[in-house]
Amino acid sequence: MRLRNVSKRYGRRREVLADVDLQVAAGELLALVGANGSGKSTVLKLMVGLSRPTSGTVRRNAQVVSYVPDVFASHDRLSASAYLRHMGRIRGLSSHAARKRSDELLDRLALAGGADTPMRKLSKGNAQKVALAQALLEPPQLLVLDEPWAGLDAIAHGTLRELLTETANQGAAVAFTEHSDDTVKSTATRVCELRNGKLVSGTTATLTEITLTSGPDLDWSQQPDVLEVRRNDDGVTLILPTGSHDAALLTALTHGCSVTSVRRVQ
């Protein structure tokens, strides 16, 4: 997914974000760092569509998006297991699949008291484990987490790092915020810093533009790593992360497309 020249303003107040250009590629673990109030949570909400930019564009090439907010409002009446089964059914899983997956995740995260513990009795850390489990019930293509390690015990701390790495290795784009330098260094594959609403380091990765002509009318938006598709009378132009464009070239040639040009655009 990509934010291109994104700014965000609430009412007449100063801009929360100003001209942010940021990309998260498939398989990447992006850490957003910065002081409180720097705009990190706003960026995450823009990524998942919970907020809209005042200016600029947000493009998501992901059908399954999961989000873990900084504050998880747990349900008073349901148990952790019942809540996750309910969320699994909403996501299209069968009751059996939802229960199996939720039990697996809660076991790995070591939920205190077990899966049948009522949500109202969960501590902040254990409620966070349920929030993490619901985000991973179905393999996401884009996973966005706001301070996901907050309140977790030492065992779950390491387990979460493993789960995020596994998710990225399965082809998802993962973005998270975190204050701990050690956690960021041990988890992230790229780090971006926000300061007063502006991206001051770790700017967007280099992109490659591929121009194609002829061949079948493929749905390029569903191809791995394709961030943007521009169609015209002569063919199609694809925008992909540099280093991740070989698969698109192979697909194009396999389907009889002609490659007009391949060039870096930034």
Automatic annotation (TrEMBL):
TM helices/strands, residue ranges:
none
Q: Which Pfam families match?
A: ABC_tran
Organism encoding this protein: Kribbella antiqua
Q: Name one GO molecular function term.
A: ATP hydrolysis activity
Keywords carried by this UniProt record: ATP-binding, Nucleotide-binding, Transport
Q: Indicate the segments forming the ABC transporter domain, all copies.
A: 1-221
Q: Which domain of life is it from?
A: Bacteria
- InterPro entries of this UniProt entry? AAA+_ATPase, ABC_transporter-like_ATP-bd, ABC_transporter-like_CS, ABC_Transporter_VariousFunc, P-loop_NTPase
**Name of the protein this chain belongs to:** ABC-type multidrug transport system ATPase subunit
Q: Which SUPFAM superfamilies match?
A: P-loop containing nucleoside triphosphate hydrolases (SSF52540)
Gene3D superfamilies documented for this protein = P-loop containing nucleotide triphosphate hydrolases
